[in-house]
Amino acid sequence: MYVVCDKARIVGCGAIAGYRGSTTESILLTIFVLPGYQGKGIGKQIIQTLERDEFFLRAKRIEIPSSITAVDFYRKMGYEYKNGIAELDDEQVYRLEKFR
Question: What is the pTM of this model?
Answer without folding.
Answer: 0.93
